[in-house]
From TrEMBL:
Belongs to the LysR transcriptional regulatory family. The keyword DNA-binding applies. It holds the Pfam family HTH_1. The keyword DNA-binding applies. Keywords: DNA-binding, Transcription, Transcription regulation. GO terms for molecular function: DNA binding. Residues 1-58 form the HTH lysR-type domain. The lineage of its organism: Bacteria, Bacillati, Bacillota, Bacilli, Bacillales. It comes from Paenibacillus favisporus. This is DNA-binding transcriptional LysR family regulator. PROSITE patterns: HTH_LYSR (PS50931).
Length: 299
């Protein structure tokens, strides 16, 4: 069946006039009439009959008009859905994040995004920097947020979203709470270390090497950032953590920073994407909402 002719017929059925239908479809009246005749010949059945200056649908025409309305309504719905996907009003956004962004900045960002795009399904998973990169590379997720200097990969590029800082913290009643001290003195006190392989542990040991200071005297070794902070809050020792992870406790006074003048360790949070691949609209919209100018892009 010729769909162009069917569209002309459906417009004639809707308006009750070949002239009005032709005008609505930007056709000449003879061209619209020819399409009607062609459709009738193709189907081998009369669809319209003249009734004075207007037209009247035959019983076959009435039935075909009802089916045509269903067809073109479905066409409109398909076009609407495809356009919604194209501009990111619908669809999905899959994010993999390391622990710190997933616990701190991402929840608020996702809520703000959902308020703007309520029909987009958002899925957030967490993993190590390597796992986040692997999921991004195998297309399991659309974007990855990684805290710290993640491993290099030629297939990925990043935008630095914000520069956090790694700081030394202690319970408010600790002798060094809020005080300034030397790195050597700090490493000699009871220390809560993260597990081997963790980013903060590597940065701490690199700091000790850079200043030629002995590694900290380990009082406790704990796997997990949250668990480490909870141990410090319980009143034991000093630890080295991202400032974002303890922002509330520092503000409330439950924890205090131990300052080491001259020592600053940056802890960037970066948004990773696949090089040379245009992100889908939901991911592009989310990135536009949270990302700084592309002058800070790296690879």
């Amino acid at each position: 069946m010729n769909l162009h002719a069917l569209r002309v017929f459906a417009e004639v059925a809707s308006t009750g006039s070949v002239t009005r239908a032709a005008g609505n479809l930007l056709l000449s009246q003879p061209a619209a009439t020819a399409q009607l005749r062609n459709l009738e010949q193709e189907l081998g059945i009369k669809l319209v009959a003249s009734k004075g200056r207007s037209i009247q649908l035959t019983p076959a025409g009435e039935r075909l008009a009802a089916r045509a309305r269903q067809l073109f309504s479905l066409e409109y719905e398909m076009e609407r859905e495809m356009n919604a996907l194209k501009i990111g009003l619908e669809g999905s956004l899959r994010i993999c994040s390391t622990d710190l962004p997933g616990r701190t900045v991402l929840p608020a960002w996702i809520v703000r995004f959902k308020q703007q795009y309520p029909k987009v399904h958002v899925q957030l998973t967490r993993g190590s920097s390597r796992i986040a990169m692997e999921r991004l590379l195998d297309h399991s997720v659309d974007i990855a947020l990684i805290c710290g200097e993640g491993p290099k990969d030629p297939g990925l590029e990043y935008v630095t979203l914000l520069e956090d800082e790694l700081i030394f913290i202690a319970h408010r009643d600790h002798p060094l709470a809020g005080a300034a001290t030397t790195l050597q003195e700090l490493m000699a006190t009871a220390f809560i270390l993260r597990e081997e392989g963790s980013y903060t542990r590597r940065k701490l040991f690199s700091l000790c090497d850079a200043y030629e200071v002995p590694k900290p005297r380990t009082g406790i070794c704990i796997e997990g950032m949250h668990e480490t902070i909870e141990a410090v809050k319980s009143g034991y020792g000093v630890s080295f953590v991202p400032s974002l992870a303890v922002a509330r406790e520092l503000k409330s006074g439950e924890l205090a920073e131990v300052r080491v003048p001259g020592v600053r360790v940056k802890d960037p949070i970066r948004l990773y994407t696949r090089i040379g691949e245009e992100p889908l609209a939901p991911a592009a919209n989310f990135m536009a909402m949270i990302a700084p100018p592309l002058s800070q892009v790296g690879s």
